[in-house]
Amino acid sequence: MAGENELLEQLRELEAVFPDEVVAALLSRLNELDPSPPKEVKNY
Fold it and tell me: Which domain of life does the protein's organism represent (predicted)?
């Protein structure tokens, strides 16, 4: 499993390419799969 910072870095790269709605949908899907507390969607 990649570290949190690495995941955030990858998310930033995705955000540069995809519209916000797509990134938000990906995050919500990740949160469904991840039993840990939901991650905040941050605006960088």
Answer: Eukaryota
Pair of tokens at residue 26: 């990906």
Q: Please report the pLDDT score of residue 38 as a whole number.
A: 58
Neighbouring CB atoms inside 10 A of 32's CB total: 9
User: What token pair was written down for 8?
Assistant: 């955030």
- Residue 26 neighbours by CB distance under 10 Å: 14
Q: What is residue 32's DSSP assignment?
A: H
Supply the range of the domain harboring residue 28.
Answer: 2-32
- For the stretch 3-38, pLDDT in tens is 778 888 888 888 888 888 887 888 888 877 766 665
DSSP code at position 18: S
Hey, how many other C-beta atoms are within 10 angstroms of the C-beta on 39? 15
